[in-house]
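Researcher: Next entry in the queue.
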Amino acid sequence: MPASRRMLVSVLAVAAVLSGGAGATRAQTATTQAIPAAARANPALWPAAASPAAITDARTEAFIGDLMARMTLEEKVGQIIQADIASITPADLAVYPIGSILAGGNSAPGGDERAPLEAWVALSRAFRTAAAERPGAAIPLMFGIDAVHGHNNIVGATLFPHNIGLGAARDPDLIRRIGAATAQEVAASGADWTFGPTLATPRNDRWGRAYEGYSESPEIVAAYAGPMTLGLQGELVSGRPLSADHIAGSAKHFLADGGTEGGADQGDAVISEEQLIAVHAQGYVPAIDAGVLTVMASFSSWNGVKTTGNPSLLTDVLKTRMGFKGFVVGDWNAHGQIPGCSNESCAQAINAGLDMFMAPDSWRGLYANTLAQARAGQISAARLDDAVRRILRVKVKLGVFDRDRALEGRTDVLGSPDHRALAREAVRKSLVLLKNEGGVLPIRPGARVLVAGAADSAGQASGGWTVTWQGADTTNADFPGGTSIWSGLQAAVAAAGGVADLRPDGDYVERPDVAVVVFGETPYAEFQGDIETLDFAPEEPLALLRRLKAAGIPTVSVFLSGRPLWTNPEINASDAFVAAWLPGTEGAGVADVLVAGPDGRAPFDFTGRLSFSWPKTADQDVLNVGEPGYDPQFAYGYGLSYARPAQVGTLAEDPGRVVVRGNLDGYFRDGRVLAPWSLILRDDGGDARVGQRLAASSPRANLSVRATDGSAQESAMALTFSGPAQAVIFGQPVDLSRQRNGDMVLAFSARLDAVPTGPVELGFGQDRIDIAPLLAQGRVGEWRQIRVRLACFDAARADVAAVETPFVLASTTPLALSLADIGLVSHDTEATCPVKR
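Model: Structure for this entry, 837 residues:
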């Protein structure tokens, strides 16, 4: 192209950007008018913001314009699609010009979630090399990852307290430093983009992502949004990319993910526009002003309309009124939840203002369909070009065209002493002292200390998004260089001349002077953490606390949780009670505040204050400062200290309204069909319902079932097929679309009692998959785990929004096998997709 022609293209491109993309805006107006009035935002009501001028410049826009003039339509469509490393290989880039990859919560190099740093670097380099070698424009990739509380994907990384704990610290400078440390560790692994900061304002503590929010109050969210953005990205400088020790951020989830009815993840925020702005939008203003390069659209809805498909929010408010010049990325297949869309086809989302699909496992079909929609004009050339320009603008700022990767592969950066010291500081600043009667804290020098409960579990202290998505299967071996709460207490007590004894069950040999009991929630993430009541249900910790109290042993409770929970009985049974949230890998930070030094004084006092109100009853799931009827047990901002003691007294132990917990995920365990589900045996002769506890024999003409031994006596069921029949777990229709979209797995233990002679179909809803080849891989008489991803089942055929039969086992030929432990589990370990017949 002649120089004069290139200059003309560049000038026109810059003019289009400076004018706001008039063609795209006109097309958008019609789309906005189709949104129901209750979910149509009025931009004039919203706060103004502006991406810094340094996010781009005339030279950058000219470079982008020249590049786009040489791009094919295929290359442009490829830029707006992101694929997960579990579903794409570097070789695929020779065929598909995909613009971005991500590593989701359970994705890792070679499927090894404990892969070392070197494997992550090798993988990122392989993808970069493949992208550089493809023909045409060969635009470099962006590699995104969820670094939720540090680089939680890699064994040996520094894990900071989850955001709920950081909110209690009330320290914006601490947040900036944590962002900077996280950026360095992510850069060391070869990734260059994290999906954070999370700027949700959780308003219902039943939400499984409450711990990802800093506070129920927008004041803390707004105070932290800018510093975390600056920590991750650094301050944007005109004409210069981010430095080697910074990465791109993504403010999420726009908008009101923390305001859904019932605290349901991916649910609907049924609120006024005034509430939407005042409570849920406040963090985005400072994030945009600080230069956040990307924004992630939410799974959730506002007044019935999915945000990912709401142009009034994505285009009219975020991009126009709030002046956001970066790009908007979707959440994990969130576009597929828009009416009229599927994971493989959704022009509506792009037309609404989404710039990049997150299509982890649906990217092939989505690429083909989006390309066809662009060719047919269902996605206008102006809208596609606007999306591509925004993506390229961020890539230039990130520096992927010539990125300084000086930190890449640096093992000394991952879990460095400076980062661990910072995390330890964050732990002690996040602790909130709810009760301290009789001066039991700080623990005096020379004391004999019993340490009980989960004190030596770094995994429980770290919570979800830890090595794996749900974080439920970690061991202390996954945290080299880290310190459990027990290790920290042991060292501090010994340094003060005392003796600490770890007894998880609380049974001691020599009577202690004081006991420290660590207990709380076990790890979870997202919708798997949604609960129906705030009652802390496990009985064992309370029984232990009461046993110690009856023995006259002063007791300190260290409570691990991702949200405030109703714990009045546990608080009453404790002399001191500390809300430690989910502190991460530096448990010594707990000991820094709980244990006195040789001089009798603790090295640090409690400074944490509640950023979430603490409930007085188990049904106070909506309990937010400033709202009518506000009546907490411990108010927002509450926090005792050694310098500010106070008496708490005995708390009421009436939990209030008790909600019966639903059961969407567990179907058969310990020899029992779990309520509300039933087991039905089905053949041509009709149905036979089996009791929840299996009888000695419950036959149909072609199928019988009886109790048999599995891991325990009569913990399994033995099925004998003599002809066509089905064993069906049946119940009222339930919506399992979140579970399927969240990549959960239908798992069960199976023992072949005879070799199958034909297909063995596993059913989920109305869809069926033949698992006979999977069963045949085992030996007769041997128990094996069978794990099939829900994503393997066709969503439409399964009717995932109204599933009555979450588990079906069918055979048309004789078959004998035994089953145990049937249910949905997280995709934390290997799962499969059998080939459909």
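Model: The longest helix spans residues 381-398.
Researcher: Noted, moving on.
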